[in-house]
Amino acid sequence: MSTFNYEILEAGDKPIKAWTKGVPFDAKAHEQLRNLAALPFVGPWVAVMPDVHVGIGATVGSVIPTRGAIIPAAVGVDIGCGMAAVRTSLHARQLPDDLAPVRSAIERSVPVGSADHRQLPDSIGTRLAASGLEARLERIRARHPKLRPDKVGRQLGTLGGGNHFIELCLDEDDAVWVMLHSGSRGTGNVIGTYFIEQARRALEKRVLGFRVPDRDLAFFLEGEPLFDDYIAAVAWAQDYARHNREAMMERVLRELRRFLPKFRLDTVAVNCHHNYVEREQHHGESLLVTRKGAVSAAEGQLGIIPGSMGTRSYIVRGKGNADSFHSCSHGAGRVMSRGQAKQEITLKQHREATAHVECRKDAGVLDESPAAYKPIEAVMAAQADLVDIVHELRQVLCVKG
């Protein structure tokens, strides 16, 4: 008898193990997960994190192991999206009472929204060349000339929009942390969109002995040229996303040094993906593990689980839970679509929920207001056997795209 905290959902002959006790779980997400689990190359089971909600094709908050195949839409178009955080030697008492100038400076230094660099900084060109990203991308484009990621340099070191953010947070000892959330930006979107379409076209030509219930579950099979090309492209986008977070962190820290007393960076730093695929060993076999809105939580591994605007976030240490394929949630998870949130959440509610945070208080971020998300405390309680909480962070400043 398992002592783990998951529930097994009905899904035919293949289990879906869900860490969802005490949190909302939409019926449409149930249906998406059943569709995933029905594919013969998915398994030995699908793991579901407590931040689960409906996605495109694959469910956000799911861990999808596959044998000999890969589903591009399960990884999605925000390839390599993830989190970075670092603890500083600063204390809360060293922060100014008015953080608005600090927020404005960060927003000037790090392009937000759909913006990119008007002029490519020397540091960005150097990073691209030194990392080998330029050369690797050219090899990918040589095989796929219609793949045209034209913003690769101009968006490195930029935030993006949606749920991407930059924050200053305080931990339980009032130490100041810098935390940010972003990914591979427009370039990853172009790569993801291109290969999802290639997979759909390939699906139309396949003769299968099984039904694919959703064209967004189109796949490549190991041994096919497109399988290898996609693996190379998605690995590139994941590396680009990591470099993007590093470049942003450098810019944010530079601005903080202009406004705040001298400080050091602690040895505690995390940089982790939560939209990605890796080949891993689990349960005695080699699997391609796609984490769609989920974080690797191997035993002793540090990760980041952010809340929404105005709520708590967590630095966690993985417990290496084999049933979850060593994974945990990537955040709180939405309970409202963006459209629904903009209709139902008022500016007054948003301002009250974020009163303690220096952040945007306008209608443009209502879809990111705390009420649009599940309670982060319930999400953390549901995955107590996946991670230990190392630090609990509360926001004092938040930059949104």
From TrEMBL:
<dbReference type="GO" id="GO:0005525">
    <property type="term" value="F:GTP binding"/>
</dbReference>
<feature type="binding site">
    <location>
        <position position="313"/>
    </location>
    <ligand>
        <name>GMP</name>
    </ligand>
</feature>
<feature type="binding site">
    <location>
        <begin position="330"/>
        <end position="333"/>
    </location>
    <ligand>
        <name>GMP</name>
    </ligand>
</feature>
<feature type="binding site">
    <location>
        <begin position="163"/>
        <end position="167"/>
    </location>
    <ligand>
        <name>GMP</name>
    </ligand>
</feature>
<feature type="binding site">
    <location>
        <position position="400"/>
    </location>
    <ligand>
        <name>GMP</name>
    </ligand>
</feature>
<feature type="active site" description="GMP-histidine intermediate">
    <location>
        <position position="330"/>
    </location>
</feature>
<keyword id="KW-0692">RNA repair</keyword>
<dbReference type="InterPro" id="IPR001233">
    <property type="entry name" value="RtcB"/>
</dbReference>
<feature type="binding site">
    <location>
        <position position="78"/>
    </location>
    <ligand>
        <name>Mn(2+) 1</name>
    </ligand>
</feature>
<feature type="binding site">
    <location>
        <begin position="274"/>
        <end position="275"/>
    </location>
    <ligand>
        <name>GMP</name>
    </ligand>
</feature>
<dbReference type="GO" id="GO:0006281">
    <property type="term" value="P:DNA repair"/>
</dbReference>
<protein>
    <recommendedName>
        <fullName>3'-phosphate/5'-hydroxy nucleic acid ligase</fullName>
        <ecNumber>6.5.1.8</ecNumber>
    </recommendedName>
</protein>
<dbReference type="GO" id="GO:0003909">
    <property type="term" value="F:DNA ligase activity"/>
</dbReference>
<feature type="binding site">
    <location>
        <position position="274"/>
    </location>
    <ligand>
        <name>Mn(2+) 2</name>
    </ligand>
</feature>
<keyword id="KW-0464">Manganese</keyword>
<feature type="binding site">
    <location>
        <position position="164"/>
    </location>
    <ligand>
        <name>Mn(2+) 1</name>
    </ligand>
</feature>
<dbReference type="InterPro" id="IPR036025">
    <property type="entry name" value="RtcB-like_sf"/>
</dbReference>
<dbReference type="InterPro" id="IPR052915">
    <property type="entry name" value="RtcB-like"/>
</dbReference>
<keyword id="KW-0342">GTP-binding</keyword>
<dbReference type="GO" id="GO:0042245">
    <property type="term" value="P:RNA repair"/>
</dbReference>
<feature type="binding site">
    <location>
        <position position="181"/>
    </location>
    <ligand>
        <name>Mn(2+) 2</name>
    </ligand>
</feature>
<dbReference type="GO" id="GO:0006396">
    <property type="term" value="P:RNA processing"/>
</dbReference>
<dbReference type="GO" id="GO:0030145">
    <property type="term" value="F:manganese ion binding"/>
</dbReference>
<keyword id="KW-0436">Ligase</keyword>
<feature type="binding site">
    <location>
        <begin position="306"/>
        <end position="309"/>
    </location>
    <ligand>
        <name>GMP</name>
    </ligand>
</feature>
<dbReference type="Pfam" id="PF01139">
    <property type="entry name" value="RtcB"/>
</dbReference>
<keyword id="KW-0479">Metal-binding</keyword>
<keyword id="KW-0547">Nucleotide-binding</keyword>
<dbReference type="GO" id="GO:0170057">
    <property type="term" value="F:RNA ligase (GTP) activity"/>
</dbReference>
